[in-house]
Write a structure and sequence with these properties.
Layout: E1 4-9, H1 13-24, E2 29-35, H2 38-48, E3 52-56, H3 64-74, E4 79-84, H4 89-98, E5 102-105, H5 110-133, E6 143-148, H6 156-171, E7 175-180, H7 187-191, H8 199-202, H9 211-217, E8 219-220, E9 226-228, H10 242-253, E10 258-263, H11 269-277, E11 280-285, H12 289-304, E12 312-319, H13 327-334, E13 338-343, H14 346-355, H15 359-362, H16 367-380, H17 390-397
Parallel strand pairs: 1-2, 1-3, 3-4, 4-5, 6-10, 6-11, 7-9, 7-10, 11-12, 12-13
Antiparallel strand pairs: 8-9
Helix pairs in contact: 2-3, 3-4, 6-16, 10-11
């Protein structure tokens, strides 16, 4: 194994000397340079091309966050490990967003320092080796479909998961399902997949993200759908920015024919990025007044954002006129046609969710499964976001 070439950056000479001393005890390490501020760090890194930069955050002239951003762009083969006495979430989030791969809290022991350097270096080495051996990806014409609503509890996750499975089974093509409900996403539970890594783990390597690395973070459902789960803990959502989401979607578009995205019921910046990048938005509603009010507000926002009307497909879930609101009144209120209807079938939906088996696989004879499979068929056939004809409505409801 070649020696790991390291540059130490800290505005305190005593700290730099202590770090160098700690590293001299490990023969795998070689300190090839040092700097006392961010500007010097950038210059030395561009000249020496080290494997690792140990970067302090708080320094004069230029801080470590800005220096890390510059190094990540101009010298992508160099990996930055941030060092700081600041252990707050905000510093961690900024460090990761800037491109740092690891974060060391001061003071640290020699053992912690060496272990972190070795782990980070080995992960980067494996990624590069994997990329070199990888074959060029085939050119794929990808479709991005975001399932969205401005009201929770309308069935977004149920539709997202069953739609992804339907498309995968129907087309035999590559389908990715992204859980972008970053605080309370349930896709992994809905599909009963084991979660090892989530989107919050992926963003730690966002600056190195390519198609090969993406595959390491996707979980395979037995239908063939590849899933990127939501963070395990709600507080991890704050580390994920719109730029991360954009990079993830672009990467998935390069290797998946269909990218289905489940979202939270909000216009958070991460959700807006997904909506902006979508070929089609499945806007889910039910026929109760609070939901209709929120959906109308959401459609107004989309109109102000100048989304083309044909990009938005209104899906009426738990569809039934028996509670007093007619479909025509719903359409007149929204000034938007209903594109698809999904009938009420709580028993099938809840049983499916509890067992972790999509009803489009296990209960294909039910009206709710036929409705979702029909939606998948229309997406595959690229039917425009116009209302279904009466014949289709009769076929779904059996009337």
């Amino acid at each position: 194994m070649e020696k790991i070439r390291i540059v130490v950056v800290d505005d305190t000479e005593e700290t730099r000397n202590n770090i160098k001393t700690l590293l001299t005890f490990d023969k795998r390490m070689e300190v090839i340079g040092e700097a006392e501020n961010g500007e010097e760090a950038i210059f030395i890194t561009k000249e020496a091309r080290p494997d690792i930069v140990l970067m302090d955050i708080n320094m004069p002239v230029m801080d470590g966050i800005k220096a890390t951003e510059e190094i990540s762009v101009s010298v992508p083969e160099t990996t930055v490990i941030i060092m700081s006495v600041q252990g707050e979430h905000e510093y961690l989030r900024k460090a990761m967003s800037a491109g740092a791969r690891e974060f060391l809290n001061k003071p640290f022991s020699g053992e912690d320092l060496v272990r972190t350097i070795i782990k980070t270096y080995e992960m980067e080495f494996k990624r590069r080796e994997h990329s070199i051996l990888a074959r060029p990806a085939e050119e794929i014409k990808s479709k991005v479909i975001t399932v969205f609503s401005t009201k929770g509890g309308v069935g977004k996750t149920t539709l997202s998961s069953n739609l992804a499975v339907s498309i995968a089974r129907m087309t035999k093509k590559k389908v990715a399902l992204v859980d972008l409900d970053l605080q309370f996403g349930d896709i992994a539970i809905m599909l009963n997949v084991s979660v090892k890594n989530t989107i919050s783990d992926l963003i730690k390597e966002i600056n190195q993200l390519d198609q090969e690395l993406m595959e390491d973070y996707l979980v395979t459902h037995f239908s063939g759908v590849r899933v990127l789960p939501a963070p395990i803990k709600p507080e991890y959502a704050e580390y994920i920015a719109s730029a991360h989401v954009e990079r993830i979607i672009k990467t998935l578009k390069g290797c998946y024919h269909y990218v289905i995205i489940d979202t939270s019921a909000s216009f958070h910046e991460t959700v807006l990025t997904s909506l902006d990048m979508s070929d089609r938005i499945m806007f889910v509603s039910t026929l109760d007044l609070p939901t209709i009010k929120n959906v109308k507000s959401g459609l107004d926002v989309m109109e102000s954002l100048r989304y083309p009307k044909e990009k938005i497909s209104v899906v009426l879930n738990k569809a039934s006129e028996q509670f007093g609101i007619k479909y025509k009144d719903f359409e007149n209120t929204l000034k938007h046609n209903i594109w698809a209807y999904i009938p009420e079938d709580s028993q099938t939906v809840i049983t499916s969710a509890n067992k972790g088996f999509p009803f489009v696989m296990t209960r294909t004879e039910t009206k709710v499964a036929k409705a979702v499979i029909g939606i998948a068929q229309d997406i595959v056939e690229e039917k425009a976001a116009a209302g279904k004809d009466k014949g289709a409505l009769k076929k779904i409801f059996g009337i």
